[in-house]
Amino acid sequence: MTSGVVGKSGTIFRITPAGVLTVLYAPVHQFFSYPPLFYKGRLIDTLIAAGKKINGVLFSLAGYPNGPWVVYVWHIFGSTPSDGAGPSGSLILGRDGKLYGTTSGGGTASLGTVYSVDPTTHQVSVLASFTGPQPLGRPIDGLLQAKDDNFYGGTEGSIGSGPGAIFKVTSAGKIGMFHKFSNNADPSGPLIQASDGNFYGTNSFGLHPDSVFRLTTAGVFTVLYSFSATVYTAGVIEGPNHDLYGMTGFGGTANKGTIFKLAKDGSSFTVLHNFSDGSVPNDGEYPNGTLLVGTDNNLYGVTETGGSAGFGTVFRISP
């Protein structure tokens, strides 16, 4: 999926292993929050309308496998009391069969919500409303359901005056602080729980450069690697060899982004690729979002610009 911004709608697309790309949905005057969730032959995502008084739309795209793909509106945020505004992050599938997501605003204190969606009836229910004080509010980057069945996610801090945090929400809707960042740093991508049971993520936009961190289930925080500048990290994934992989939107030899590998104990850090350094023609510029592991165990991602037409690329790299 391409990520849209205000004034640029973006698209949801499908690409085959041979590189054949098909646009499935291209909205007008609306933009996507995050990549869609593929669930039982449907793509489920949220939209925000640019320049309109609308709090966001939850929708599905149906048409798998051969199309045509049709948009179905499941929920308009703000249509029920305190259901939230400004959906943020991709939806996830919970172990109870419901879908879960967050909004960055709305709710009982206008600080956001954690909501669930019944994928059969499309009914949206608020699991929890953030009530502050900051940084316990304004969630970003979606949720992770951990092995303890609790939900974890990140919040942004007060702009210029306070850091963000990692929060925990129980299945009963109780919100708690799991970790508060320092130096005005915010989490800058979705949290993962790796095979060793620990949580991993990235933070950015603080007084110090971006970093990759580890959080134990007891909440012990460790910086595994600090970059030399703010390079716009967006989370990490665990690769098939159990190392961590991520991208930077800037930095590298051409200052147009990198792909990196990091050992989970922080003992080794390797730049696997510098975008637009000439080593791979038309490889793209400014990678965006997180990587994903394909069924072939290769890593896949996208860039915002560059490529043969200058509008970005979908790339593959061996771990």
Task: Set down the secondary structure blueprint.
Blueprint (H helix, E strand, L loop, with lengths): L11 E4 L5 E5 L4 E3 L4 E3 L2 E8 L7 E6 L7 E7 L8 E9 L5 E7 L7 E5 L6 E6 L9 E7 L5 E5 L9 E5 L5 E6 L5 E2 L4 E2 L5 E6 L6 E5 L5 E6 L6 E6 L5 E5 L9 E5 L6 E6 L10 E9 L5 E7 L8 E4 L2
Can you describe what's shown?
This protein is mainly beta and 319 residues long. It has a domain at 194-319: 6 Propeller (Neuraminidase). It is built from no helices and 27 strands. The protein has strands spanning 12-15, 21-25, 30-32, 37-39, 42-49, 57-62, 70-76, 85-93, 99-105, 113-117, 124-129, 139-145, 151-155, 165-169, 175-180, 186-187, 192-193, 199-204, 211-215, 221-226, 233-238, 244-248, 258-262, 269-274, 285-293, 299-305, 314-317. The strands form seven sheets. Strands 3, 4, 5, 6 and 7 form a five-stranded antiparallel β-sheet that branches. Strands 16, 17, 18, 19 and 20 form a five-stranded antiparallel β-sheet that branches. Strands 8-9-10-11 form a four-stranded antiparallel β-sheet, with no helix packed on it.
